[in-house]
Write a structure and sequence with these properties.
4-stranded antiparallel beta sheet, 27% strand, alpha+beta
Length: 135
């Protein structure tokens, strides 16, 4: 669980308010190869329009997104956010990218809230990665 100081810093740098949409409880997994860290997986949940969107984001040791997978969701019209065609947009993105809907991420028609929530969630995870890397 992130400390209040960490949350405040991440909110300030990322432009995201944790509030009711973004959880402070993130699960981080570390991936090793030959005893060297090669990346991390962050498990998170954000709120869509109809309910939670539970997802996993793989982040390289350099801080760029490798892959995003939606693990579960309750969205009625937002189902296309779980498709690889949408999720591929995050690959290679890092904290120096805007990671904003309609800027460098194309949303799903009819699922704006879900598209925005997962986009902000991934941006949040990249800032959390940087915070933990520095700490």
């Amino acid at each position: 669980e992130l400390s209040q100081d960490q949350v405040s810093g991440i909110e300030s740098r990322s432009g995201i308010s944790f509030g009711d949409v973004h959880s402070k409880h993130i699960t981080r997994f570390t991936a090793f190869k030959d005893r060297n860290v090669i990346g991390y997986a962050f498990e998170d949940t954000v709120m869509g329009k109809w309910g939670p969107i539970h997802y996993l984001a793989g982040i390289n040791a350099d801080g760029s997104v490798m892959e995003v997978v939606v693990l579960g969701y309750q969205e009625i019209r937002g189902r296309p956010i779980a498709k690889s065609r949408f999720l591929r947009q995050y690959q290679g993105k890092g904290v120096n990218d805007p990671l904003k809907l309609n800027k460098d991420i194309d949303g799903v028609t009819g699922a704006t809230i879900s598209s925005r929530s997962i986009t902000e969630g991934i941006r949040k995870l990249l800032y959390i990665f940087n915070e933990l890397k520095q700490g």
